[in-house]
Write a structure and sequence with these properties.
elongated; 242 residues; 0% helix; eight-stranded mixed sheet
Length: 242
């Protein structure tokens, strides 16, 4: 890759408040690049990732650890052209409350631990184009209350929402085939879950320590459930479709 980082690479913040943020980019083609970081956020905590680098390359990726640990970050806007969000890209952004994707988002992949430890993130609307999430992508987002999973997603990886203690509502689309190890472990506010007919397997510890989970609707009677998938739950009532 060719680094595109110099004094002319300053992108104006889209908030229109006259604040200029310095972004760093890395080119990996004649017309595309990845954003690898920013020097700061706007005074109100917003970060509007630019759609294009100053040299005209379109931003199609957010690099690994690009904004990790940026404590002042409250809200981030991801442009339509971004297809991938790297490992730990926003991990441990302790003040992050909102993540906004363009309505025409082309996002297909969120890597492992991308939003891990964003403990003020309360909600996130994932684009329908999203087909892959890495392990623990949203783990320990302790204030996340509700999430609806996009129809392109076929696997819920290990630890996806592990430790999301405030999570009350999850909509699992009928494209999901597997629920990975510890995917919802220690989601102590989760009381009910509906698993669509597409789900073929539920791994060990998938719902471990969901101590208030008392209702599980299983729409595939042939689904393989690992012995400890619901370990230390509140003896949930299973409703199985026939």
């Amino acid at each position: 890759m060719t680094a595109v980082i110099d004094k002319k690479n300053i992108c104006s913040d889209k908030s229109g408040k006259g604040n200029e943020l310095r972004f760093a980019f890395c080119a990996f083609g004649s017309d595309v690049c990845t954003v690898v970081g920013a020097d700061r956020v706007s005074p109100d905590g917003t970060l509007n990732i630019p759609e294009y680098a100053p040299d005209g390359r379109r931003v199609v990726a957010i690099a690994d650890s690009a904004f990790e640990g940026m404590e002042q970050l409250v809200s981030v806007s991801v442009p339509a052209g971004v297809k991938t969000i790297g490992r730990r890209a926003f991990a441990f952004c302790a003040s992050l409350r909102r993540v906004e994707f363009d309505e025409c988002s082309a996002l297909t992949s969120i890597a492992a631990r991308a939003f891990c430890g964003c403990d003020r993130l309360e909600e996130i609307s994932l684009p329908d184009t999203l087909g892959f999430c890495g392990e623990k992508a949203f783990a320990y987002c302790t204030r996340l209350v509700a999430v609806s999973l996009p129809s392109a997603l076929t696997e819920l990886p290990a630890g996806l929402f592990e430790g999301c203690r405030a999570l009350e509502s999850v909509h699992i689309s009928d494209s999901v085939r597997t629920v990975g190890r510890s995917a919802f472990s220690a989601c102590v506010s989760l009381r009910g879950i509906v698993l669509p007919a597409s789900v073929m397997s539920i791994d060990d510890s998938a719902f471990m320590w969901c101590e208030h989970l008392d209702s599980v609707t299983l729409n595939n009677p042939e689904c393989e459930i690992s012995p400890y998938a619901f370990f230390n739950c509140a003896e949930p009532t299973f409703r199985v479709a026939i």
